[in-house]
Structure formats: structure tokens, C-alpha cells
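User: Can you fold this complex?
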Amino acid sequence: MLYAGVMSAALPPFPTPEESHDAPQLLQVAPSPEEPCLRADAARNRARLLEAAARLIAEHGVAGVTMEAVAAAAQVGKGTVFRRFGDRTGLLMALLDHSDRQLQADFLGGPPPLGPGAPALDRLRAFGVAVLYRSAEQLDLQLAAQPEPTRRFSHPAIGARRTHIAVLLRQIVPDADCDLLSQTLLASLDPALIHHQHRQRGMPMERLEAGWTDLVARVTRTEPPPR
Amino acid sequence: MLYAGVMSAALPPFPTPEESHDAPQLLQVAPSPEEPCLRADAARNRARLLEAAARLIAEHGVAGVTMEAVAAAAQVGKGTVFRRFGDRTGLLMALLDHSDRQLQADFLGGPPPLGPGAPALDRLRAFGVAVLYRSAEQLDLQLAAQPEPTRRFSHPAIGARRTHIAVLLRQIVPDADCDLLSQTLLASLDPALIHHQHRQRGMPMERLEAGWTDLVARVTRTEPPPR
DNA sequence: CAAATAAACGGACCTCGGTCCGGATCGTAA
DNA sequence: TTACGATCCGGACCGAGGTCCGTTTATTTG
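Assistant: Here's the predicted assembly.
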């Protein structure tokens, strides 16, 4: 389990203030237009908390990330953790934030086929594969960071992915209900599903990758790629 | 919110003993071959607990279903609740058990197009629609009964549905990776997804139904039905 | 019917997520 | 530099899920 990415994600002092779980923004990419910019001590504590959480994960796994433990490790009061991140999943999602932004930057402005420049169909294929492997790398954290079912699709990062898929789909199958189809496609990349297929049913990642490619071909009614 | 179905589910003294959450049986239908058959007092308490839980839901919503409250309402010790149902989700899933069996009986042996007799494609369409509306009716309970991500696909009832979809798919697109496709299709019927589309994004159920029909057509590479 | 054994019971107890509010700190403006 | 208000901090506190184990009860066997 390599949590190096997670560690680095903890370092930038970008604030994700406590109001982070409602803004229905469609496409986030920068640390949001202009954050209320935390007070100096708040920003410092935020960074220490993320770092402490990452350290706890590295040492004791996700299960070891107790709100009290994180607070203690960061030498901070428990209330501070909740003030900053709202709840446990908020903290864990913040740990994934860096990697979320990375992915988003890649498919919004990175090199093809993930980024713009390639045909939409190729971008869609590449997107799924990217999400697949990214999730597989951080599966434990991804699973633990899943909020209760009611909010599972409310996270901005998820919304951004859905929108991206929908945009691509509209270029390929303009007549379809792309808003709906995009959700379905995204659901097939759910970390819990990956966990079940890969770990519980033992399917190799290559098969999941092929499954995604095939699914995209079927849904778009195009020929499967030669492989 | 009609919980009549739930109430009636509480009545049959069928035991679902504490070992119910691992048996990887492919198709359950009866109350399992021969349950270890609970002791008389245990069966009685089980029934009282289910009844109490259903009553609490009817009165205070799912949020009112506290393990202690259920125990108290059933005039039983808290430990007994956990012994019987393992954990909270176990209790809530037990409440859905009756409706699960009903659905299963319908698609395994009921009248077409859900049951055998109709072409596989029609059965697949009907299956999705059935699951869709059934879930919509009990959304709150369905959402609350979702276990942590790790076990979300381990429930026997889910496995049965997956298998059923896979069987149908194999008759329609024998060359596809039906085991994988079936999971994807099932994922698009996830209660959390329905909740998000229908309640949070305001899509009418008819649109979700059309979405399923369209998805099935695309995935099987068949013509969409005339409507 | 009585003794023996396995199963079930109950509730005290623990942990952990989440809340609350009096007090400390930071940023700012005079 | 000082004063002031907004923001933040901390940890006591609460509720609910889950565990444990001494006690009770159903069932079986002689």
C-alpha cells in the first residue's frame, strides 16, 4: 500500500473549509474561485491534521483513523477536526482531494487520449481506465471515504466526473439521454464495485478494463476497439 | 409510505439466524434448506423484534430505529437484537427479506414477462422495471439498509439478482462477459442511484424506466422497443 | 422426572462519531 | 500599541452501535 500520493496531498495548505459539502458547482478545478481563506492558525491546523491522518493510515490502515486519534496526533482538539472537515468522511475525502484534482486536470486539460484533442470515444475509454486504476490503487481509502448512500453522488468531484462523461457522450450519441447514461457509466466504476469484482470475486484488473471498454462500445453502439 | 408489506414481513416465524451473512449460496429462495431452526424463545423474540422495528419505522421513520429502542419496544435485551441480526443493517435487511423473496419468486417462477415463458430480453426489461419501482417504494428503508461498501454486493438477495441477470444475458449476448455486464446492469438499479436521480435531481420514475429500457437495448445491441 | 448441555438472554460496559459553548487567538483598524 | 470583533480552539458531554460474560431457559437424554 503506497500512500505517498496521499502524503503529498496533505501538504499544500489549500483550505477546504467546512462548507465544502453542499456547493453544487458543476466543474471545480482550482481550489474554488476564492476560498474564504482560513485564518493562519486554522490553515496550519488543517495541514497538520491531514498530515497526521495520512501518517495514521500508513501506520495502522484506514481503520486506525479515529477522529480522536487524528486530533491527538496533530496535537489539536477534537472539535477542531470536526470544525474543519465536517465529519469523518469529510476528512477522508480531503485526503483524496489532491488525487481528485490531478485526475480532473488530466481529463480537462492533460494530453490525449485522456485530455482534449482525441476523439470523444477514445477519451471516454481512457477516462474509465484511468478511474479504474486510480481507484484500485487507493481502494481502502476510497471505500472508507464513501459517505452514506444519500450523499454518495453529491461530492463535487463525482459531479465533475459525471458531467465530463455526459459531455463526451453527447458528442458520440447526441440522441441518447446522456445525463442518465453518464450516471450509469460512472456507477460501473464505483470503488465498491471494483472492490467486489477484483478482491472478492478475484477478477484481474485487465478484465475490468476490458469490461469498461466493451461497455462503452455497447452503450455508444460503436465497434469495439481492435485491442 | 406504506409499511404494510414490511409489517407482514415480520410475521412469518422464519428464522434468519446470525450466520446469515456469509453463505455464498447462488440462489436462495426458500428460507434456506433447513435452518438450524431456532429455539422456541429465540423464534418468538425474533418475531417480536421485527414487529417492533416495523412499528418504529411507521411511527418515527427509519432514523427512529435504534437498536436500544427496538429492544425496548420488543421487551427484550439489547444483546438479543445483536445476537439475532448481527448489526443494524442486518436487522433492516431482515425487514426487507419478505419483499426480497417475493421479487425472487416472481422472476423465478411468476407469470411472464417477469417470470419464465417470455423471451429473455423481455424478462430483462421487466426485471429492471420491477426492481426500480420496488426500490422506489421503500427507498428510505433500502437506503438505511445499505451495508458498508465492503459488503454491499455480498447479500444473498443481491447475488440472486445478479445471477438472474447473468443467466438472461447469456441467452441474449452469449459472447459477452455476462458476469461483468450483469453487475454493471445491477449497479444501475442501486437504491442510492435511484434516490439521487429521482429525489435529488428530480427525474420522474418514467424517465428512469425509459433509461433502463434504453440501457438494456444498448448493452444487448438490440433495437429499442417501440414503446 | 431429573440432570446435563447447549443455546439464548440481558444489561453493564466500551468505543467512537458528533455536538456545544466558554475561553483563547488572530486580524484589523484606530 | 491597543482595543475589538470575528473566528477558532478544546475537551467535556451525549447518544448509539457493538461486545462480553454471568445467568437463565429450552431441549435432550437417561
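The longest helix of chain A spans residues 88-109. Chain A touches chain B through 35 residues (CB under 8 Å).
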